[in-house]
Amino acid sequence: MTDTGVIGVGPLWVGTSWKMNKGLTESRSYVRALSDHVGRKGLPGVQPFVIPSFTALAAARDELGADSPVLLGAQNAHWEDAGAWTGEVSVAQVKDAGAQIVEIGHSERREHFGETVETTRLKVAAVLAHGLVPLLCIGESAEVKRAGESTRFILEQAAGALEGLSAEQLGRVLIAYEPIWAIGESGRPATVDELREPFAELGREYGGRMTGLLYGGSVDLDNAEELLGIDHVGGLFVGRAAWQLPGYLRLLEIAAAHPKATG
Ligand code: PEP
């Protein structure tokens, strides 16, 4: 199978993390309007997901209601279920608040909060143990890219976090490749040519064995379609371009119209 997006036959995953943005009112109204838009049936061939702040998770869950086609996620979670970990929130707690996906190892968490390959491994295991979907973020810095080490670096990040998983557990994982130099305000969009090799290698390693392989980093309405066209890209993980609902809805439409979308 070539150029099919990934990794088994499945939907294109298109999701957004809001990072440390949006209070309760804004979170509720975004999710309510999204839910109205996609209805109970969702969009054929596309799996939408939204990752609000912890504080808005339960409210977002309530707005979506049961059996929504939109999945909800948390931006992080601790690997222990409970205990003396002041300021942390456990996988059990985010599950209780409505999370079905848990984002792990975003580069901002690695840079500012000491997330390591070892902590990502513990978190992936905890998320799987609770029956949720780990969304493992991997990505190299500009320095690593300049040294020509991008692919080696991201494969090591992935292998470290996924070490010891059974085939069944691995089959429930999502990976988002998000080069650090391509994300956020200071990032510059990656070109399709720059992304071909990392995705080819990730596809070689994990193709057919995981739920999906996503791309993230300065995705917008202009580049989404061509990014989805890269071999082994099975979805998009989006920040700024999806923080306002019309942008996210447009991205969902672009994905739904893509030949890789399997309804
Ligand atoms: C991100 O920070 O993970 C991200 C994808 O952000 P943006 O789309 O805004 O570059």
UniProtKB/TrEMBL annotation:
Gene source species: Mycolicibacterium hippocampi
GO process annotations (BP): gluconeogenesis; glyceraldehyde-3-phosphate biosynthetic process; glycerol catabolic process; glycolytic process
Substrates-to-products reaction catalysed: D-glyceraldehyde 3-phosphate = dihydroxyacetone phosphate
EC number, as in UniProt: 5.3.1.1
Protein name: Triosephosphate isomerase
Biological classification of the source: Bacteria, Bacillati, Actinomycetota, Actinomycetes, Mycobacteriales
Subcellular location: Cytoplasm
Family named by the database record: Belongs to the triosephosphate isomerase family.
This protein's GO CC annotations: cytosol
PANTHER family: TRIOSEPHOSPHATE ISOMERASE
Example of a GO MF term: triose-phosphate isomerase activity
Alphabetized InterPro entries for the sequence: Aldolase_TIM, TIM_sf, Triosephosphate_isomerase
